[in-house]
Amino acid sequence: ALGLFTGIGLSEAKARETMRNGVLSALLRRAVLQARSSLGPALDKATGTLLYNAAARLKDPKHLAFLVGYIARREILTDLQLNAALEYLRSHPLEPVDAADFEQACGVGVCITPEQIEEAVEAVISKHRAELLAERYHFNMGLLMGEARNRLRWADGKTVKNEVDLQVLHLLGPKTEADLEKKPKAAKARLAPVEKQKVAVVENGDMGTETQSLLEQLRGEALKFHKPGENYKTEGYVVTPNTMALLKQHLAITGGQVRTRFPPEPNGILHIGHAKAINFNFGYAKANGGVCFLRYDDTNPEKEEEKYFTAIREMVEWLGYQPYAVTHASDYFDQLYTWALELIRRGQAYVCHQKVEEIKGHNPPPSPWRDRPVEESLLLFEDMRKGKFGEGEATLRMKLVMEDGKMDPVAYRVKFTPHHRTGDKWCIYPTYDYTHCLCDSIEHITHSLCTKEFQARRSSYFWLCNALDVYCPVQWEYGRLNLLYTVVSKRKIIRLVETGAVRDWDDPRLFTLTALRRRGFPPEAINNFCARVGVTVAQATMEPHLLEACAREVLNEQAPRAMAVLEPLKVTITNFPAPKALEVLVPNFPADESRGFHKVPFHPTVYIEETDFREEADKGYKRLAPGQPVGLRHAGYVIAVQNVIKDVSGRVIELEVTCTKSDVGEKPKAFIHWVSEPLVCEVRLYERLFLHKNPEDPSEVPGGFLSDLNPDSLHVVSNALVDSSVLSARPFDKFQFERLGYFSVDPDSEEGKV
After folding, report:
1. Has 561 been annotated as catalytic?
2. Alpha carbons 735 and 337: distance in angstroms, whole number
3. Phi, psi (deg, nearest 5) at residue 326
4. According to CATH, what is the number of the domain 1-106?
5. Dihedral of alpha carbons 385, 389, 390, 393, sign
6. Residues spanned by CATH 2.40.240.10 within the chain?
7. Domain 114-173 classified CATH 1.10.10.2420?
8. Where does the secretion signal sit in this chain (predicted)?
9. Is 29 annotated as catalytic?
10. Cα gap 647→369, rounded to integer Å
11. Of residues 79 and 379, which shows the higher confidence score?
């Protein structure tokens, strides 16, 4: 093989590298031997390069002999022709290939004369003559090349370039010193970062802001996905004699529309990783004028609860997406059962009695029942359906080997658990490996998008659709999104709830979507975060502060300002300027006062933060102290300490101050927030739930994730004081408490207790 490959012009290193790839090596050997039988043992390097590229780039090896025949007969001579040939064969996967149509598409027999090249270049130069004379050799010569090649598609590129160079020299003469100077680069206008270019979109009747970049990442050619109906152009897609007819039917049903689906299991609450899946599936459909189904994968009745179904749909809609249809795998149980019988009849599935423990792992013993007669499997499968076998006594298995070496995956198992939708109708339930691709087929999904761990199931996905001769969608994989300092597995969140570390699935310290909503994260911030992470194939593990930065960006625009005091210190103004309380107008958004104001009462008694007063002002301290006045934000007054009142233990409990108008006298060093006649509220301050980045990693946390809990992850301020403008706020309304941070009204709020 080494001599064979170096004999066509490959370097020894390249030849050895090729030999390490068994599939490529075998194809190239076949190609070279076939070409030698026509051209003799000595092949020139140009032919060798064409043969290597044909073997390396041909998607379907069954066309290799056909293609090599054209190279050996010197009918395909250039890389340009080879590219056209490879594209034609990819688009026409079925045999026999229409030779006349193929030859026309690849320029076979087309002869381009030097005169034709000369004329084409002359026409192009004539078209750009004025610019050429003005810019001389600074003109983009690639443009001339491209236009000349467009006029003569099969012309040799080198010949065209030589003719362009010759005619340009004839027009402009030799290069001068000015021509040799580098052209100064035009200053580019600075663009705002993509993630900050916001565009208003209408979702569910509300105006929201959405980062453009996600839709830009998902639109059209951006992902190199196949077009609807061109599934066969995807690498690894299996083409059968029925494929093209099934794709034709599929296009007739969908009208060429992109169709995706988001298929969660209804046995837990969605988390931040699901937000990427929702954005990817719904976003890809939206960006390409398509539709997305929300399909519940409800094939495991033991773990499913109604609250999960409701919460999943709620979260999808909260993120701003409306499903085209809400479906369930259980909608198709009858069809799936009928197809299982057909699979047995075709000799592609059998009833097996190996125990679950026996078939676990990657090298289980082969099933002794693999070759049992079809009629026997049909009767036993019917017995499984009638409940004649106990749980674990029989399964239906498919006859295939998956990418990861797993053999004969299970299609059906016995479970005596009533289903929340079908009741007691079934005591056998299909598995993910069996259900998923067939539900995609029934719904005519064009792009089945899933996370990278399902790559090992791609072959079973294609195999099952083809074994039943039904429309076969294309599975595409992308990388999961993970966050540091958290756990997202359902089992671990249940342990956190059971041990009392968190209150429930929506505890604001978790990264489930219900928890993020309760914490106050706007849906736009989560979508923007997913857009910044990007649609990567590699798994992404991100720091929580990146998500928080996205939240701040949105909240800065959306959350009105209010004033709140978490550690109150009473302040009495002894020379209050009015006989009764005043009203102060506070802008909802100080940077844009056109967005309205709210009224705050201003009484002789106000409350400030304890930390905004010191008895002794050290260097750099700018807030309130004896002899150092401060301004009250928005009030238009400056206060100065006259008297400090303490309790028996010496703790400061009240200040007596005088006030003056802020436009009289010297400007104070600082302005502080305050409240007067406030609401008493409970405020919960949250920090990270875990101390280490990877609480599940035994090398970081040997004692397990429950030993890594942050004891200060929740601090409750029972008697915080908030200005009365928040009185009418509803759960999930958000505010920026000036100088403190962003806060959201918790659903625990009730009449009289915010």
Report:
1. no
2. 54
3. -105, 115
4. 1.10.8.1290
5. negative
6. 569-588+599-672
7. yes
8. none
9. no
10. 86
11. 379
Distance (Å, rounded) from C-alpha 547 to C-alpha 533?
Answer: 10
Q: What are phi and psi of 221, to 5 degrees?
A: -80, -10
pLDDT digits (tens, 9 = 90+) for 508-534: 999 999 999 999 999 999 999 988 887
Three-state SS string across 424-477, please? CCCCEEECHHHHHHHHHHHCCCCEEEEEHHHHHHHHHHHHHHHHCCCCCCEEEE
Catalytic-labelled residue, pool 230, 265, 342, 654: 265
**435: number of Cβ within 10 Å:** 23
Where do you find CATH 1.10.10.2420 in the chain? 114-173
Integer Cα distance of 738 and 723 in angstroms:
11
Contact indicator for 172, 136 with CB cutoff of 8 Å: yes
279 torsion bin: left (phi>0), alpha (psi -120 to 50), beta (else)? alpha
Three-state SS letters, 56-69: HHCCCHHHHHHHHH
Q: What tens digit of pLDDT does each residue of 726-741 get?
A: 988 999 999 999 999 9
Q: Which of 30, 161, 480, 503 is catalytic?
A: 480
DSSP assigned state of 638: E
Which DSSP state fits 237? P
Tokens 């929740």 identify what position?
Answer: 714
Q: Which residues contact 362 (CB under 8 A, 6 or more apart)?
A: 404, 405, 406
How far apart are the C-alpha atoms of 54 and 28, rounded to whole Å? 8
> How far is residue 262 from each of residues 229, 279, 516, 658, measured CA to CA in Å?
20, 9, 20, 63
DSSP states of 26-81: HHHHHHHHHHHHHH-S---HHHHHHHHHHHHH-S-GGGHHHHHHHHHTTS--SHHH
Q: Enumerate helices (H) and strands (E) in the chain, giving the number of each.
A: 24, 27
Strand partners, 262: 294
Using CA atoms, how far apart are residues 93 and 239, in angstroms rounded to an integer? 7
Structure tokens of 609?
A: 């933060």
Mean pLDDT (the chain) is 89
Mean pLDDT (whole number) for 602-630:
93
- The CATH number of the structural domain formed by 569-588+599-672 is 2.40.240.10
Amino acid at 253: I
Encoded amino acid at 97, one letter: V
Which two structure tokens, joined as six digits, stand for 556? 């800065």
CA distance 531 to 484: 18
Which among 282, 287, 283, 288 has a CA at the least distance from the CA of 324? Answer: 282
The two structure tokens encoding residue 432: 């993910």
User: Which of 75, 153, 171 is CA-nearest to residue 117?
Assistant: 153
Q: Is 642 helix (H, G, I), strand (E, B) or coil?
A: strand
Task: Using the structure block, give the residue that is written with the tokens 């679950």.
Answer: 356
Could you confirm whether 265 is annotated as catalytic?
A: yes
Cis ω on the peptide bond leading into residue 96 (within 30° of 0)?
yes
Give dist(CA 229, CA 272) in Å, integer: 32
Tens of pLDDT, residue by residue over 379-415, are: 999 999 999 999 999 999 999 887 667 789 999 999 9
Cβ–Cβ under 8 Å, residues 626 and 614: no
**How far is 509 from 519, CA to CA, in rounded Å?**
8
Is pLDDT at 223 greater than 80 in this prediction?
no
Q: Taking the CA atoms of 513, 516, 522 and 524 in sequence, report the sign of the dihedral they define.
A: negative
From 490, 492, 684, 739, the catalytic residue:
490
